[in-house]
Amino acid sequence: MRVLRKAPSLAFAVFACVGLFGCSSESANSQSAVASPPVAKATWSTNFFEARQQAKKENKLLLAVFSAKWCKPCQDLHNQALDSPELAQATKDMVLVTVDVDEYKSAADGQGVGAIPDARIYNANGDAVLKTVGYGGLASFLSFVQEGRMRASAK
Questions:
Q1: 134 C-beta neighbours (distance < 10 Å), count
Q2: Count of domains in the chain?
Q3: pLDDT per position as a tens digit, 69-96
Q4: 127: domain range?
Q5: Do 59 and 123 lie in a common domain?
Q6: Within-domain flag for 92
Q7: How far apart are CA 114 and CA 97, in angstroms?
Q8: What is the pTM of this model?
Q9: Which pairs count as long-range contacts for 147-152, CB under 8 Å and 24+ apart, including other chains?
């Protein structure tokens, strides 16, 4: 009997919420769709030499990540950072390339890559302005990108 007495007050509360405040699931969904921008995803090349030429031609910085499929920290970097919307936003005006050191050994050797993951930021002239080895999480990688941007603009 107590349940029946509370049911009308619960129905009234839901009705009041919907009628007075627009708390319907439809309006909540439409508000969240408007408030949330689409998730951006960065576009990564896999050819270091072409990416370097593109950066020079477009006068942009180049972010190059040297890694391997068998390398756990490399895979963490790929899964947690490289496809993140935060990195896409931070690198939207850069040329991006991932280089598999097993498939493109000449590119890795030519840049003196030893331990991986190895990430480098190059200026438009192809000079390395900053390098990091290893992966310490998304926040650390974003800081690396910002530091590389600042160093490139200081030169």
A1: 13
A2: 2
A3: 999 999 999 999 998 999 999 999 999 9
A4: 48-154
A5: yes
A6: yes
A7: 18
A8: 0.74
A9: 148/61, 148/63, 148/121, 149/61, 149/121, 151/121, 152/61, 152/121, 152/123
